Amino acid sequence: MNGIQKFIIGKPLDTGAVVKNIDATVFSGGNIGELYVEPDKKTITYKMSEETVVYGLGETLRGINKRGWLYVSNNSDEPHHEEGKHSLYASQNFLLVDNGDGACFGLYIDHPGEVRFDIGYTKSDVLTVSAEDFDFSLYRIDGETPLEIVKNFRTLVGKSYEAPLWAYGYGQSRWGYKDASDIRDVRDNYRKLGIPLDMIYMDIDYMQDFKDFTVNPERFPDFEAFVREMKEDGIRLIPIIDAGVKIEKGYDVYEEGIKNDFFCKKEDGTPLVAAVWPGKVHFPDFLNPAARKWFGDKYKVLTDMGIEGFWNDMNEPAIFYTEDHLKEVFGELDNLKDKELDIWGFFGFKGLLNSIDNNPEDYRRFFHEFNGVKVRHDKVHNLYGFYMTRAAGEAFERNNPDKKILLFSRASFMGMHRYGGVWTGDNMSWWSHLLLNIKQMPSLNMTGFIFSGADTGGFGCDTTEDLMMRWLEFSIFTPLFRNHSALGTREQELYRFGHAEDFKNIIELRYALIPYIYGECTKAIEENGMYFKPLSFEYRYDERAREIEDQLLAGDSIMIAPVYEQNKTGRYVYLPEDMKLVRFRSFSDYDTEVLTKGDHYIKAPLNEVLVFVRKGKKLTLTEPASCVDKLDVNKVASVIEF
Ligand code: GLC
Hints:
Elements: E1 4-9, E2 24-26, E3 30-32, E4 35-38, E5 43-47, E6 53-56, E7 69-73, E8 90-91, E9 94-98, E10 104-110, E11 115-119, E12 126-130, E13 136-142, H1 146-157, E14 171-172, H2 180-193, E15 199-202, H3 223-232, E16 236-242, E17 245-246, H4 252-259, E18 265-266, E19 274-276, E20 279-282, H5 289-298, H6 300-303, E21 309-313, E22 321-322, H7 323-337, H8 343-354, E23 366-370, E24 373-376, H9 384-399, E25 406-409, E26 412-413, E27 421-423, H10 431-446, E28 452-453, E29 455-456, H11 465-475, E30 482-483, H12 500-526, E31 532-533, E32 552-554, E33 558-560, E34 570-575, E35 579-584, E36 590-595, E37 598-603, E38 609-613, E39 618-621, E40 638-641
Parallel strand pairs: 1-2, 8-26, 14-15, 14-30, 15-16, 16-21, 21-25, 25-27, 27-28, 29-30
Antiparallel strand pairs: 1-13, 3-4, 4-5, 5-12, 6-9, 7-11, 9-10, 10-13, 11-12, 17-20, 18-23, 19-20, 19-22, 23-24, 31-32, 32-33, 33-38, 34-37, 35-36, 35-38, 39-40
Helix pairs in contact: 5-9
């Protein structure tokens, strides 16, 4: 295939990430261009120049330029992801190396287990990719420009998932809505203030004892009628589905899984017992096609009741504990109980408790039936969330062929972008996580995860009104646009704060922009392009643009420069060319000002959204409505041209 070379190293497993068949070279080591592959050392190395910028890795930590850190592909439940972490919920093993002198290339490591990307961490000018299991397909992707490389890569991995138009509306979520009355309250409060709303998310409390594909009949006495009632008000209910299936006699999903041997088993042939929200669970073996089909068809229970969207959760899979490891810990605690602990003994004891959840040893205790072969989980760990989402996506193609269903997942891997989008997992109500969200978006877009977004306002800990407002001012540009928060944190529905009018203006602006955002995302999907781009992808030889980490191009017409620090009334913005600044106080109340190429200090009051229209481009807005179904997407409210 044009621009792509495939090398087989060792004995790779077929992950399902790649859809294009291309001729491969069986490779035992040596140079692939400037890359040096050493199977003995289990490394691929590349010497970076001072100018080299390395993009990619999808949803992970740190900057748009990945240089200077060690990233580990190992899907992890990692809500407290500060700078020092190495892994998040996703693994997208794609790198784009840009040397600034016109030379650039892409690299994709199709490996389902742990891969380490040391990008100038050990030695600041050396990029080293390593994997304990040195068996994978390596793709080198060429192209004249970063965008051409992205396009070639995406041709290899297939077309991205398309979400329905209504899913571009605003969604309110919170872990803690218990029953129909809580959900009606959310609807009523939004409608009362006239703040548009399209989705209310249902977290685990809608289920009967956290059992997938059940609805608690006391909390939702006539669920089907409730789904209808909400839809008549323009609101879709979006339930969560968790990876673990509760162990409970008589629960059909559990019984069928046992009967058909669809759960992941241990070496001794018994199903692994882990614990997550429902208590003790088994994990469906989504890697086994029959189990995948079975689990996927279960979503029909809810689609038959009128549900049109889902979020797949806990699918790294997150493990609170396994029965086996807990036994080990209790055994060791028994040993310690009557001992006099010195300080190191005390830390050992504390460490024991900290070792209980998401323990790497536990991921070695169970197996999958993968392509007819028994494979230990850790060897294919990063596929699990992908294959859960694939189960749902394939089922929707079978069972709901005429409908677009909203689907997104917490854990992901390359290939999953064909079946659903992602949210970036549990984050915190921290300003640094707003900035991280900005940086994650273009990297996710490179890898085809166009329908993506973060928990706006922050999931964990207490948000503040100004953080919520600033985060919304960014999130109104993200395709997936959801406000979500954790049980026990400050409530952060927009009607909880003092400035409802400002929030209304911001959300209405989103709705006025939906035709633009949807159109640009659809274009990115159709053309294997990107909706969110780093500036350097368009302003290729602009030295300054190469270093900009906090401004993005959103679609073809605009650049955004969000404010992501508390108590700021403005910020510096770099313009790589003359642009027209639009200062929105609402979708219909705005000023424009032409600014010249270069640095500017731009005033940014808390309730204004700043957009920069690029030269020769235009931004068209429609009239907002209370929900997307009521939006006249062809109606032009205003056109801002430069
Ligand atoms: C996980 C999810 C989060 C959800 C919670 C309860 O932490 O990431 O979004 O609210 O579980 O289901």
